[in-house]
Fold:
Amino acid sequence: MSPRSARQARLLRLANQLSASGAPGVPKTDGERMVWVHSHIRAEADKQLSREEEVAREQIMPLGVGQHAIATHGQSSHGNLFQFREFPMYPGEYIPPQHNALSSLRDDLRMDLSAQSIKQAWMRVSGGSYFQSSSEYYASVDGLDAEQLGEIISASLPGFNRYESKALVTRVLELLSKPGDSPARKLGRTISAEAVGLDNAPGHYTNFLEWMGRLTETRAFKTEHALFQFSRRKFNRDDVRVMFENYSLMSKAALQQSASDSYSHFYHVLKDFSIKVAGEDTRHQVGVRIDEAEVDVDTGVSVGLGQADNKKYIFTAILRENKDRNGQVFLHGRPLHVAFDNRSWLMEKVLQPFDEAKLDFRDFDVSIISEGKHSPFIGNGIAASAVRLAVANAIAKMLPLTRIPLKKSGLLSYDRRAEPGQFPGFLDGKKAHRRFAKR
Structure:
């Protein structure tokens, strides 16, 4: 494998020098070094392609608001009320650099907070030499320019390419030459990073949650969220009636005044609807009934009933607290794994109410018996769902507050519309059932 271009030869020569100097992480054989060179060139090509994509994408992003704003298609404007946002509404959304007010403010403040310590370190190292600008620094050191400094940095830090190293040099020189009495420096001296919501990890998820929480309280966000839910047809007849009343209550002058910022007129019309879809109004939600505990005083047991398949399966679960935390579940007097023949999916279905109620099944002794006229085969999912219903009812009667998660997860009811399973004499559910006879 020989280099095919001057660039490959130069990179291969650099890799050989790093290998000879014993730098950590450098491949040992010539073939591996050549693969290293190819991957580096490919990564550079990918970065260049990304830069070209960003330039091409910036050209289609609207840069103004008002009568003559560029009206682009729904994809680039994200199909929303505004042509662009000054903050990312969801992770990964593209914002032009000159409009990303939040991240640019955060980055500027972070750099200003760290600039003073960089300056102090430079004063210690250089013995007090100070310069007003980057060009003044290059004039003071003979024969050095940004290109050479960038090459030195990229040679000492292999993770940086030439452009990144040059940008790093430029940024550090700008920080060092920035006067100490600038407004940003004064701001950095008077307030701390915590005061603006930045912790030690500025890209941390808690910061995202914090400003997202503030953002969702704004009128603009509530309006846009209401419009989005309206477009998803989350409204009903009453919502439309209230919207029409809100619109009719506004005079023409009030409508024009609120429309001056391009969204407040939407807010006044959709005010009640936005409260509903934001989940702040619980009047449209159905509450869960909480009953008194039904526990036998003498024995301390609670009893739950469960049925399925048109009362073919009827089970009763008897639940009692186990103080020793070694409780067991018995079905027809046999342990659950024996009764269900080690079918784990059926055993998990029976124990699901304990998981939903955040309980440990070992804290209870459970005994489940069949109440039907005859004993059908219980090693199937329909029978297991009837047993689960009996266990959930027994838990809810012993601990009434667990009725909330059990009811919300649908474990306290069963679907009566489910068609019955097959049995001897079953034809197709429509015809009269034929009696079973041995013929």
